[in-house]
């Protein structure tokens, strides 16, 4: 039995101690009694691990190297460059770069990743490599795999069969990209078939949905309607929906009511889409985000995600969710003090809700997974973009770092 004392627990001001036994939280409270080992957290902020609910592990680092830069900075060039280069993909290549990406994310306190895996590949190379890693790395990170037809469900020859095959192989989620199909009708039909596949295989849905600046892109409306009718909203996520940041208020307001009814989830990738969107705009330029603040006020579940690390779509990124959060709350105007105080939800609990993880959170009976930040409360953590000092999984440290001093003592300040 292990006891962590002097913890400041995010969202639980009554508790300061955590007791862990047999990989699980045995109790969370105060004065919890004796333990074999006592660890003093010195008042630091403890929260459930970061969740990155949208990442492309099979693409990681593909954008590095001469001639690989996406010159226009657009989604379409990213897809084209990937398509041109993916023919040389091997399982070993995907495995090695995915491991590097996972290392980066885990070292920043992430323990849950949903990764889209391109299945528009007759060999399903990425899916094969990532299915193995999902199993091999499960004590370090929980991986959810999306069968994602990057080059289009219909637009890529044999797309529907490849998506089905990936689900048969064991993908956890079915994906889609309706705004990349060749017409509105093709996009709608792809969504219908994808929802049918989800019901047939009993898997979640996560669609790259309206990742453009077109205020007339309407696949979010279609997806929402389809899953609302099937009562499948909590198992469904609309990723990106950047066009919803460009629509008129009267349309947005109508949709808000329908999102409330369907309970569909949203993922916003603030850094990626600030980079990709608005490329066709003169000034003023769109920020490229969906209506994050308004969706949250509507009671919808919204999570932030990294999306890319140095691939054909986005040249930056390092798996640090605090960086994503910092950018996201600025771009979304989610910066009232009350919003800042709960902003960590966007990279923790809200992501766990997207992934439908039930065994999540610092409470009795759950797996003993948590992180410790170099801050004493949520506001300080967000304002300082606090470092992750430790990540604990199943009661054991994945890593632990020295406490960094926030303030350097400079001689002249003492005078
Ligand atoms: N942002 C994106 C990254 C990768 N693929 C996409 O379709 N979009």
From TrEMBL:
Signal peptide: none annotated. Transmembrane segments: none annotated. InterPro entries: Amidohydro_3 (IPR013108), Metal-dep_hydrolase_composite (IPR011059), Metal_Hydrolase (IPR032466), Metallo-hydrolase_Enzymes (IPR052349). Keywords: Hydrolase, Metal-binding. Its EC number is 3.5.4.1. It comes from the Bacteria. Residues 37-396 form the Amidohydrolase domain. One of its GO terms (molecular function) is cytosine deaminase activity. This is Cytosine deaminase. It comes from Jeotgalicoccus coquinae.
């Amino acid at each position: 039995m292990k006891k962590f004392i002097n913890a400041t627990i995010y969202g639980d001001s009554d508790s300061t101690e955590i007791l862990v036994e047999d990989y699980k939280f045995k109790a969370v409270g105060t004065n919890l009694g004796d333990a074999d080992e006592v660890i003093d957290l010195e008042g630091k902020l403890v929260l459930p691990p970061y969740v990155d609910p949208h990442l492309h592990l099979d693409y990681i680092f593909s954008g590095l190297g001469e001639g690989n830069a996406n010159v226009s900075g657009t989604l379409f060039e990213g897809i084209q460059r990937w398509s041109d280069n993916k023919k040389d993909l091997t399982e070993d290549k995907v495995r090695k770069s995915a491991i590097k990406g996972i290392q980066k994310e885990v070292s920043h306190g992430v323990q849950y990743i949903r990764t889209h895996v391109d299945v528009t590949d007759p060999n399903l190379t990425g899916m094969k490599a990532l299915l193995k890693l999902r199993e091999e790395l499960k004590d370090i990170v929980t991986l959810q795999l999306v069968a994602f037809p990057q080059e289009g469900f219909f637009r890529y020859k044999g797309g529907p069969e490849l998506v089905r095959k990936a689900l048969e192989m064991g993908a956890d989620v079915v994906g889609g990209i309706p705004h990349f199909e060749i017409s509105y009708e093709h996009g709608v039909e792809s969504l219908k078939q994808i929802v049918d596949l989800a019901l047939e295989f009993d898997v979640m849905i996560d669609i790259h949905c309206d990742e453009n600046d077109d205020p007339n892109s309407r696949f979010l409306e279609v997806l929402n309607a389809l899953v609302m009718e099937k009562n499948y909203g909590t198992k469904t996520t609309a990723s990106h929906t950047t066009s919803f940041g460009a629509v008129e208020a009267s349309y947005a307001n109508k949709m808000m009511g329908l999102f409330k009814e369907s309970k569909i989830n949203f993922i916003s990738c603030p850094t990626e889409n600030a980079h990709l969107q608005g490329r066709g705009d003169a000034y003023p330029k769109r920020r490229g985000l969906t209506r994050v603040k308004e969706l949250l006020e509507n009671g919808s579940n919204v999570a932030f995600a990294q999306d890319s690390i140095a691939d054909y779509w986005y040249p930056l990124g390092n798996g640090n969710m605090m960086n994503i959060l910092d950018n996201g709350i600025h771009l979304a105007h989610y910066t009232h003090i009350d919003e800042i105080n709960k902003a960590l939800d966007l990279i923790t609990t809200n992501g766990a809700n997207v992934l439908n993880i039930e065994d999540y959170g610092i409470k009795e009976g759950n797996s003993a997974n948590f992180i410790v930040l170099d801050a004493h409360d949520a506001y300080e953590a967000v304002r300082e973009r606090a470092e992750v000092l430790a990540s604990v999984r199943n009661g054991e440290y994945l890593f632990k770092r020295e406490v960094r001093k926030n303030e350097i003592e400079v001689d002249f300040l003492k005078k």
